[in-house]
Each structure stands twice: as structure tokens, then as C-alpha cells.
């Protein structure tokens, strides 16, 4: 909110119930600043109009004084759930992921092809945007750790470029198996 830029977007995070306030000038996470909620209210009291915004929702407007429009974030994002304790090979990973993404049968089974699908888009029927759930990271087989880390970087870039989010264990259908999500990179 430097240089008097108007707050035009607000996000109420699902995972930690934190808030993010953005202007049209903030287009990349590296440009973000950590400030208190009171500082935001001091800059623009109209953000109190969305104080009841539920976690997992965003609000946006054209400019200060415009009406806020409330939107459920990523409600239609394709879910990609990976339990690393069940992945025994790169092939097993691709078997699971490509079917979840709605990938065509000709889809490549390598990290470059995965990046094309998750970041560039236009290949899978389901995305991007994706809601990623990576669980049981500590159970990744030793020979798959570097591969897992590359997958996590591609997912992070997909979210940065296209939106999307990480799924918490409580959101996973049939949850309750004790798996814990991999934290953001």
C-alpha cells in the first residue's frame, strides 16, 4: 500500500485465517509487505465493510468507494491430492496425478510436462487453477525426495502464476487418516 495505492483486493486465508490486502500494483508475492490490521484500517477504513468475509473468500473492487464483490476463492479448482507414503515411484506419482488433473493420454510423464500442465495450462481438462494437497512428506522414499521437492516447486509456481491454494487435511474428502499437509515452500 505504498505511495497511496488503493486497496482493491482482500483475501481471508483459509489455513491460518490471516488477511492479505492488495492493490492493483501488487502482482507478485515478493512485493508483499507485512503490516498490522490496524495499519490497514488506518490507511482505508472502508476495509471494515468486509470484516465479516469468511475464511476462504476474497473481496475485490475497482477503487476506493466502489462496492466490494465477494468471491469464494478457488471453489472450482481441480483438487490434486498426493499421499507421499503411497508413492513408490515416479510412475506411481504420474498415474495418480495425471488422472486427477484430467490429463490427456498423450501427456508426458516428466517434470517439464507437469510444469507445462500446472503452470502454462491449456492441456488438462481440470486446470490450472489447482488445489494441492501434499501429505505424508516425511514418508517419501529416499530416492524420490529430490523428485518430490521438484514437484512442490512446480506446484508453488502454479499457485503464484495462476492462483490456487493448498488443501488442509480437514478438507480432504474422507479425511481423518492422520496425514499432515506439507507446508508452503
UniProtKB/TrEMBL annotation:
Belongs to the barstar family. Residues 163-185 are annotated as: Disordered. It comes from the Bacteria. It holds the Pfam family Barstar. InterPro entries: Barstar, Barstar-like_sf. Residues 79-117 form the Barstar (barnase inhibitor) domain. The lineage of its organism: Bacteria, Pseudomonadati, Verrucomicrobiota, Verrucomicrobiia, Verrucomicrobiales. This is Barstar (Barnase inhibitor).
Amino acid at each position: 500500500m505504498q505511495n497511496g495505492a488503493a486497496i482493491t483486493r482482500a483475501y481471508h486465508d483459509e489455513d491460518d485465517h490471516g488477511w492479505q490486502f492488495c492493490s492493483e500494483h501488487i502482482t507478485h508475492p515478493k512485493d508483499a509487505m507485512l503490516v498490522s490490521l490496524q495499519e490497514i484500517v488506518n490507511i482505508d477504513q472502508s476495509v471494515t465493510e468486509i470484516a465479516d468475509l469468511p475464511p476462504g473468500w476474497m473481496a475485490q473492487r475497482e477503487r476506493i468507494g466502489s462496492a466490494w464483490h465477494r468471491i469464494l476463492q478457488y471453489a472450482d479448482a481441480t483438487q490434486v491430492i498426493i499421499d507421499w507414503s503411497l508413492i513408490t515411484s515416479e510412475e506411481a506419482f504420474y498415474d495418480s496425478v495425471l488422472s486427477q488433473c484430467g490429463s490427456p493420454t498423450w501427456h508426458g510423464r516428466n517434470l517439464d510436462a507437469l510444469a507445462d500442465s500446472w503452470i502454462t495450462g491449456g492441456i488438462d481438462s481440470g486446470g490450472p487453477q489447482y488445489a494441492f494437497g501434499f501429505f505424508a512428506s516425511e514418508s517419501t522414499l529416499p530416492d524420490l525426495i529430490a523428485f518430490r521437492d521438484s514437484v512442490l516447486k512446480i506446484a508453488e509456481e502454479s499457485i503464484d502464476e495462476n492462483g490456487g491454494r493448498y488443501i488442509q487435511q480437514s478438507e480432504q474428502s474422507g479425511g481423518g487418516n492422520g496425514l499432515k499437509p506439507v507446508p508452503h515452500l
